[in-house]
User: Fold this.
Amino acid sequence: MVTAAGVIAALLLVLLCVFQAALASGAPVGHYAWGGQHRVLPTNLRIGSGVTVLIYLALAVVALGAAGVIAWSPPGALVWAVFGLLALGIVMNAISRSKPERMVMTPFVTVLAACFLILALG
Assistant:
């Protein structure tokens, strides 16, 4: 179960990387992120999306490491911290003013947080 959770988390994070890269490139899907106030993100949020790609890639490595898929094993406190941030992300997406963000990102982040909870308990 832990291995599956790690692989699923990594795949979801890669999907988020593709999404954030699209946002950073100017794709008109901004209503699904960053509060949903811009279809095409302004420069500062596009830069934020670019940085987010790097963060999500690092989190994918954490997931794979915690699942034992790669040789590196992250500290347990790091896995718990990621779970905590994702749990906060559930709340933030759920209270977004953007209905598309609430409807798509809230369940997406919920599944991702559940995977990290399994990894943290694992």
